[in-house]
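REQUEST ID: PR-0412
SUBMITTED BY: lab tech R.K.
PRIORITY: routine
TASK: structure prediction, single protein chain
INPUT:
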Amino acid sequence: MGSTADKVSGKANELAGKARQGIGKAVGNDEMQAKGMVQEAKGDAQLAKGQAKDAIKKVVDKA
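STATUS: complete
OUTPUT:
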């Protein structure tokens, strides 16, 4: 997966996780809230992976 795809997937998971947490909190569903936190963390990791790929590409391109 390329850096752009990682960043897009990461942002989508981050936003979906936040939404899931909000819904879980609103309806009092702790399990849904927890799953939302996990999904948000997954999104953060994907986003970081995409950013790292971009940084590596910039270094390689300068060489």
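NOTES: The chain has a mean pLDDT of 95.
REVIEWED BY: pending
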